[in-house]
Amino acid sequence: MSSVVAVSKRSTHAFAKEPIAEISLIVGEGVEGDAHRGVTVKHRSRVKADPTQPNLRQVHLIHRELFDELRPKGFEVSPGAMGENITTQGIDLLSLPRHTLLKMGPSATLQVTGLRNPCTQLDDYQTGLMLALIDKDSDGNLIRKAGVMAIVVTGGKVKPHDAIAVVLPAMPYQKLERV
């Protein structure tokens, strides 16, 4: 069963987010009280490039299974540590097509917009972590493992142990790209 493992937020632009008991998702904006909440982009490098671009990175999700993959490589990562708002389990987030809906909690719905691009801040957290979150497939294509980004379609409360329902978009599917 797919479910929420943890929810996190932080009101300032710091790398890690604080795990809390519950988050409130605001339609078209993101996580209430989080520094990345807004209609327009809030990620500092993207604001510098164009502060008027839409915020396709309102909510960051990472699958808990990634922590298990990183542990044998010497990395200790816990929910919120890589800046995600929602830590999931039981969903292969990275293989979802663009526009997939994730329904969670009593009423919240997120729409997956793309992949998070691993950045150098990961190495500030643990040396070598950025490279550990980049891989290549058998054809040599880059695989970004740092989670997915989403926008809030329907608001509501989300907390650990909430079930997650995955609703795939109409075909043909669009592959996730970095946002």
Account of the protein in words:
With 179 residues, the chain is mostly beta strands. It has a single domain (3-167), classed as M1 Pyruvate Kinase, Domain 3 (Beta Barrel). Helices cover 12% and strands 32% of the residues. The protein has four helices and 13 strands. Strands 2-1-6-5-11-8-7-13 form an eight-stranded mixed beta sheet. A three-stranded antiparallel beta sheet has the order 4-3-12, with no helix packed on it. It starts with a strand and ends in a 12-residue tail after the last strand.
Feature tags:
179 residues, mainly beta, M1 Pyruvate Kinase, Domain 3, eight-stranded mixed sheet, three-stranded antiparallel sheet, 4 helices, 13 strands
Q: Average the pLDDT over all residues and give the rounded result.
A: 94
The CA-CA distance between the termini, in Å, is 28 Å
Tell me about the biggest sheet? Answer: 8 strands, mixed
Which class best fits the helix and strand makeup?
A: mainly beta
Query: From the alpha-carbon coordinates, what is the Rg to the nearest angstrom?
Result: 15 Å
**Overall 3D form:** globular
CATH architecture: Beta Barrel
Low confidence ranges:
none
Strand proportion, as a percent range, falls in 25-35%
Number of strands: 13
Helix fraction? 10-25%
Order of helices and strands: EEEEHEHEEEHHEEEEE
Number of helices: 4
Domain tally? 1
What is the fourth-level CATH superfamily? PK beta-barrel domain-like
